[in-house]
Amino acid sequence: MATTGNQRAATKTDKANIAELESMISESPSSDRACLKVAQILNVRRNEVALMRIDKGSLRFLYPPELRSAGVLPLSGSAVAARTASTRAPLLSNAFMRVKHAALFEAVKVGAEVEDRSQEQLPIQKIMSVPIAVSDGNVMGVVQVSRKGLDPAVAGVDFTNEDLKQLEQMAEILARMPFMKETAEF
Questions:
Q1: Residue 20 lies in domain
Q2: Is residue 163 part of a domain?
Q3: In this predicted model, what pLDDT tens digit does every residue of 20-44 receive, in sequence order?
Q4: Both ends of the chain: CA-CA distance in Å?
């Protein structure tokens, strides 16, 4: 299949955006700022990005801020993020409502911005979940990007394998961010 001019332009834009995320490492950004960049790159709302770090056998939310005090996900549990961390395997599902998952955190109100209010407590319809690992392969966390809505059509376009590859590239960058280090405060 031939690559069109638009596909080449999109690929260059994607690489430039990922390069912007990487350039943020030297600025020691907050997890909030880095996750907002992830949302921008993948064209999702801020409340459709989640970032978790492993802490004492559980995944603790770093982002969104509203979930920092909402509890933890045990690594031994059945939550998608826990499975992502334990199997070290990325997941892409455009039929997520049919996947058995813990919907507890979906009920927490997130997204104070006006444009997000309509999405506050909508269910996740589509999701990508990627482990964040250090160079030796040890998993230090998980990043998830979702599309929320009353049904899959309203939630937005399906995630693609290219989107998943981008998120995997971003996970490699997130692994080098100061807030992912064990010594960083929550």
A1: 5-180
A2: yes
A3: 999 999 999 999 999 999 999 999 9
A4: 46
